[in-house]
Trefoil factor 2 (Serinus canaria), 128 residues
Amino acid sequence: MDLKVLCALSITLIIALSSLAEGVAPPTKCQCKMLPRERTNCGYPGISAAECKKIGCCFNASVPNVPWCFNPKPKKVKKVCPNDPYTRINCGYPGIKARDCTRKGCCFKAHPAGVPWCFYHRVVEEAC
C-alpha cells in the first residue's frame, strides 16, 4: 500500500476509536493491578497516559518491554441484599411468599412494615 494511504487509514482509525471511546469510564486501580507479563496492548505506539485512560485503558510506563497502555481486568462484582430497607426496589407483589421471591432471584426480608419485603439485589464491586 502507498504510504499516504496507510497514513490516512491510520488517522481515520485513531479518530474513529477516539470518538467511540468518549465517555468511557476510566478503569479502577484494581482493574489495572496485574503482572507485566499479563498485559495485553490497548493503545498504539507513543500513546500518552491521558489518551490511554481516555479510551478506558490502564497506563503504567514503569516496566520496559511490555505494553504501557494495556487492557484492564474485568470488574469483579457481587450481588448483595441492601441493608437499608428504605432503599429497596420492589421485586414482587403484595403477599409474595419467601420461596416465590427467592425463585425470582430476589432478596426477601419480612420487615419492617411499609417497605417491599421482596426486593432486588444491588451489584457492588468487590475489593482488590
Observations:
- Strands lie at 58-59, 69-70, 77-80, 107-108, 118-119, 122-125.
- The first helix runs from residue 3 to 21.
- The chain is about 25% helix and 10% strand.
